[in-house]
Design brief:
Oligomer: single chain
Distance between the termini: 33 Å
Structural class: mainly alpha
Strand content: 5-15%
Strand order of the largest sheet: 1-2
Order of helices and strands: HHHHEEH
Number of strands: 2
Number of helices: 5
Shape: elongated
Radius of gyration: 18 Å
């Protein structure tokens, strides 16, 4: 995998490592675009903490900030970085499967 794609996958994994960020992403997936205030109303996380998580998620590319009415920013999911991470995992799985298949063939042979 190309280095820039590997770096994207790494940022996604770091972002997903935190349960609060996973909760924010799950809320956006379930309810669609939302502001930090909307998310704070739905989750047991302070608005300030949500804002920090959203900033990291935006840096990772997992959410996109869209200006709204009265300077309110709405966040929506972007699946492109997640797809890169999935491709990284699929490539890794293929790399692991080959040696195991060779070993199985050797042991069965």
């Amino acid at each position: 995998m190309r280095p820039e794609l590997e770096a994207t996958a790494e940022r996604v994994f770091v972002a997903l490592a935190d349960p609060s960020r996973r909760s924010v992403l799950a809320a956006l997936a379930a309810h669609g675009p939302a502001t930090a205030t909307d998310l704070a109303d739905r989750l047991p996380i302070t608005r300030q903490a949500i804002a920090k998580h959203l900033a990291l998620l935006a840096d990772t590319g997992l959410v996109i900030a869209e200006p709204g009415e009265r300077r309110r920013v709405r966040y929506r999911l972007d699946s492109a970085p997640m797809q890169v991470a999935q491709q990284f995992l699929a490539a890794m799985a293929r790399d692991w499967d080959r040696p195991f298949e060779a070993l199985r063939n050797y042991l069965d042979g």
